[in-house]
Amino acid sequence: SDNQLSQLSFDICQLSRLRSLNLSNNRLTELTSGVARLSSLTSLNVAFNPELKELPASLSLLKVMRRGRR
Fold it and tell me: Can you tell me the mean pLDDT for 45-56?
């Protein structure tokens, strides 16, 4: 969160035990489809990335994730 990231390294997809990924408040323009390999992921926050227009369809392959509250 708040790291001014413009892209996410594909290496993060190797973290198979990662449960929560907070990428909010950055400058991401796209999210790698490899995120779908994070089989333990239950929480993904990509809020406030103004240039991020869509999420990869492969995210639908992940198990049900908790829906955040606003």
Answer: 93
